[in-house]
Amino acid sequence: MKKILLVGVLLLSNFCTFGQHLGLSFKEAEKQNVSIERLDKSYKSAIHSDTSQAVFKTEMEQVALQQAYVKMLQDLGKFLLENNFKWEKPTRCFQRIYFKPDGTVDYFLYNFLNKNVKPEDQLSEVKQAEFDRLLNLFIENYQFAVKANVKFAQCSPATYRP
């Protein structure tokens, strides 16, 4: 009985550890009970105005983080193109990305900014679903170029362009 229980616990812990990699809109995250507030308590801010609260404290560390972040967004853009996903128009987005210490992505949460955007210029549900699908494929194996000794998060606005 103890062996069965131990195997069950090990399988469950592996599922929880390896099954993470979620790319979701803010709205979908809320539906799935993925709380940004809870995540922000579990993941330390990559960069913070108070460097004592930041993961990357020195200027050199912050430059490396920025370069890795830009590269990740460029890699995502290339991945989308390689998979025949094309933006019709510039599309503004806000994203919060939560990383494990080894640089793998736990959560990539995003919100397309539709404020002051004409309805005909907003991303269609079909296009957003395809973005979501491809984003999840991308983060499944993506390795962020910077590592840390704790889980960390980075957020930013972005504009995806044709």
Question: Can you lay out the helices and strands and say which pair or pack?
Answer:
Elements: H1 2-18, E1 22-25, H2 26-31, H3 36-42, E2 44-45, H4 59-82, E3 91-99, E4 105-112, H5 125-141, E5 152-160
Count all strands and give the number.
Answer: 5
Quaternary organisation of the protein chains: single chain
Strand order of the largest sheet: 1-4-3-5-2
Rg computed from alpha carbons, rounded to a whole number of angstroms: 17 Å
Total DSSP helices: 5
Describe the structure.
This protein has helices at 2-18, 26-31, 36-42, 59-82, 125-141; strands spanning 22-25, 44-45, 91-99, 105-112, 152-160. The chain is an alpha/beta fold and 162 residues long. Mean pLDDT is 86; it is low at 1-19. It starts with a helix and ends with a strand. The protein has a 5-stranded mixed beta sheet with strand order 1-4-3-5-2, with helices on both faces.
Summarize the structure.
44% of the residues lie in helices and 20% in strands. The chain is α/β, with parallel strands linked by helices.
Question: Which descriptors would you attach to this protein?
Answer:
single chain, 162 residues, alpha/beta, 5-stranded mixed beta sheet, 5 helices, 5 strands, globular, disordered N terminus
